[in-house]
Amino acid sequence: MPRQHVTTEVNGEPQDFLCEPQETLLDVLRDELHLTGTKEGCSSGDCGACSIMVDGRLVCACLMFGVEAQGKTIETIEGMAEGDKLHPLQTKFLEEAALQCGFCTPGFLVAAKALLERNSDPTETEVRYWLAGNLCRCTGYDKIVRAVMDVAAETRET
Amino acid sequence: MDYKAPNSIDEAVKLLAEAKGAARVLAGGTDLLVQIRAGLAKPPLVVDVKNIPELRKISTDSDGIHIGAAVSGAELGEHDEVKAAWPGVVEATELIGSTQIQGRASLGGNLCNASPAADTVPALVAAGAICIIAGPDGQREAAVEHVATGPGQTTLKNGEFVTEFRLPKKLPRSADAYLRFIPRTEMDIAVVGAGVYLTLDEKGVCQQARVALGAVAPTVLLVGDGSKAIVGSSLDDAALDRLKAAASAACNPIDDKRGTVEFRVSVAGVLAKRAALIAKQRAEVN
Asked: What's the CATH code of the domain at A50?
């Protein structure tokens, strides 16, 4: 099957690529576009390590074909910091050690950013439910949840 | 594998019909991509239906509410009108998977994947939802309970696919509810699911009811004896006990690590009863 030409916008820049129809968007991001911040965990939509935004919706990049991205706006972890300036969630995750091995971290950051954009004052329960599709085998989640709650509180104050 | 993303229902029907049953329809892909990855599905053609406008739309008219088969769970959950009219259908949809899955998963996919444990199906069956099916011979309608025939099996013929769900116009003093049991609090597959829709009269007597169960048989069950148990009652304890017994009696579940036969049979009765009580409370205030 010939490779298909796909035109998208990735992290604010026009981006086109060629891909096989059965390649997932995760494969394309990592292997074609070399955006390896988006991680491959389970490849079945259970772990959230490949969380990205597509047209403003949080999705798993492993559960979408690259060809489905035609005409879509994609945001990945690479677009989260502005140059050297980290996003407040990134800063807080570092300050509060809301990570250990770091493999799940890009997915958590993208998912948490999506939550705070919709809800600037989430309860702990809301944070935990929203992030239920992101698995972390190191932290036990408490530090992650606390970091997200702290960013929400600080953002509301400013 | 080839991939096509047609812009119209007719074009999709043509592509599916020409593939002679070997193609797969792609909506949210949350089941299909996993099956392809695992080698369980090897379709020569995938027809992505998300570029067909009718499949992405929610609208209301005198018939009720029309929900495009590829509308995502997140879109449905944000739709105030559907939430107000059919809270049970929306809560069943929102129980599926994570936030990420909600961004893609659809009613059409949940029905046509034909898992006995599909969460939206008992809720849609209880609601009396109809699905609109497009195919080479034109359009037909089918009650949601008549689509799946067993795990992974449907009555859809070559070239056919579900385009839309139609929820009936909501009657006064009517409401639905859906409950499921899973061993975790989130991110799991139903061990038992129960959907109930009922209508009360002005005195609070149940005029009509539909009871549906998921994950307790090869297909979702519409439990006729469940509605008989509560119609004519004011959902007093005796009626609810009859409902519980009818729901348990209808079950023919599998025995697996997520739930034994005995457990599923028992929980089906409990959930049917509790869902009926929630539907009753909702019906009393609308």
From this structure: 3.10.20.30
Based on the fold, state whether residues A106 and A74 are members of the same structural domain: no
Inter-chain contact A44–B48, Cβ cutoff 8 Å? Answer: no
In chain B the first and final C-alpha atoms are separated, in Å, by 50
pLDDT at B286: 76
pLDDT digits (tens, 9 = 90+) for B156-185: 999 999 999 999 998 999 999 999 999 988
Q: Which amino acid type is present at position B87?
A: P
For residue B248, CA distances in Å to B32, B123, B211, B251 come to 32, 18, 12, 6
- Of the candidates B191, B194, B192, the one whose C-alpha atom is nearest the C-alpha of residue B212 is B194
Q: Strand (E) positions, A24-153?
A: 51-54, 57-60, 73-75
Domain that holds residue A102: 88-157
Q: Which domains does chain B have, with CATH numbers?
A: 58-168 (3.30.465.10), 174-284 (3.30.390.50)
pLDDT bin (cut points 50, 70, 90) of residue B106 is very high
> In this complex, which of A51, A65, A132 lies closest to B187 when CB atoms are compared?
A132
User: Which tokens belong to A122?
Assistant: 């989430």
